[in-house]
Amino acid sequence: MLQERRKKHKTAWIRPLTGRGRNAKTAVFFSRSAAIGARDQGAAMEALKLQRLGDALDAAVRRMRSEMDDLKRRADACAAAQQALAGIRRNWRDWLDPGKYGPAWFLVRDYELGYPRRCFSLKALANVRRCEPFFARELVDDLQNAERGLAVPYARPGDPAKPVPLGGLSEAKTRDCPSCGREALVVGCHQQTEDSPEGDAWVLRLYILCPDCPCLYDLGLAADGYRCLHGTPDPR
Questions:
Q1: What is the pLDDT of residues 116-160, one digit of tens each?
Q2: What is the DSSP letter of 125?
Q3: pTM of the model
Q4: Residue 11, φ and ψ in degrees, nearest 5
Q5: If you write DSSP's letter for every residue of 88-105 in order, what string do you get?
Q6: 143, 138, 145, 126: which is closest to 235 by C-alpha?
Q7: Within a 10 A sphere around the Cβ of 188, how many other Cβ atoms?
Q8: What is d(CA 58, CA 71) in angstroms, rounded to the nearest whole number?
Q9: Which of 137, 140, 164, 136 is nearest to 150 (CA)?
Q10: N or C: which end of the chain has fewer CB within 10 A?
Q11: Which helix (H) or strand (E) holds 207?
């Protein structure tokens, strides 16, 4: 009796590997392998989907950022044109010292351009040799006071007011817009850029103001250590 039990105990581990036990074990092994393979294939497909989604999101972000940059450039261009248009209506009030406390915009009755000072620079602007500014009666926001002139501070009683240069809008210089080709106004901006005991710096810029684009395009530049509009810029 005891010997039979020992014999069964020694041969018990052999049974799963013979006959039906071996087939069942093999079937379980392959079924587990198939399950693992299917799970790995599903994970690979999910990873591929996520990768494609990431690529699509990256492309969308780049496209939207490019569109945002384009919109920002257009907004900045419209804001600059808006500032210029508002200036040629209101900045006659600053004509006692135009550009001293902020940009002074105006229309241009006549001007003359010379060669750029830095000819080696591709971005060098034409030098403004001469500029005749004025304000259009049709555009100024207070024509009555503009025609009356500006009171000079600390003037003696009876001294005349400083006249504001006025004219008709038809006198304004025009040029073709470099972008759309339509006729556009030539406007100017005079401003002090540096105020120090060592010396001042003033800048006179001419632009093409296109109402159709709308945008400002650089036309000419004069930079000097004195007021460009109250003297003749350096013709160099």
A1: 755 444 456 788 888 999 999 999 999 999 999 998 887 777 778
A2: P
A3: 0.68
A4: -100, 5
A5: HHHGGGGTTSTTSSS-EE
A6: 126
A7: 28
A8: 20
A9: 164
A10: N
A11: strand 199-210
